[in-house]
Amino acid sequence: MELVYFLPPILGAFIGYITNVIAVELLFHPKKPVSIFGFKIQGLVPARSREIVERMMDSLSEILTQDDFEFMIDRAIVRAYIESDLAKRIDEIFDKYPLSFIRDIAERSGLVARMSLAISDSIAGVLKDAVAKNIAKNIDLREFVIKKAQEVSDEEIEKIFKKFAKKELRFIELSGAVLGFVIGCMQSLVIYPYLT
Per the UniProt record, which residue ranges are transmembrane (predicted)? Predict the structure, then answer.
């Protein structure tokens, strides 16, 4: 007779967990619209994936600025230079001839050599900045991401979403079990006077 009081919490936990697992799956499935009793059903993410991407782009465009792109491009140019043959050749020259030797040559050749080095460094810096600004100005992140989103399949979107929100989705499933258990306990308290 006392087992009757444990039945509502156990059933409530089971039903709450199962319904939340189904609700989480309904976020992604069915991928294509299915007609059931005249109602069209489709997973929320596949049905609204383009709208989700659009909203994400609106949010990103508010956060990312042209200065951010200039920074990224500037760093990319510097990395490309470091990895280039020119950088390797300059390193070879410094390995072959000690820095003091190059400095001696610069001092012997006088002011003209130092000025030419300073001018070439400033020209390289200005060119690098101009290139970075010009490229950054012409980048359309929204267009790129929307194009990429159109190439991504619903399965890949599901994997990305589940990877990103794995803990939160698991929490939703388990919270169904907890809420079902609590409601079951309240039901047991309500029926207790009638069974005793």
Answer: 6-28, 171-195
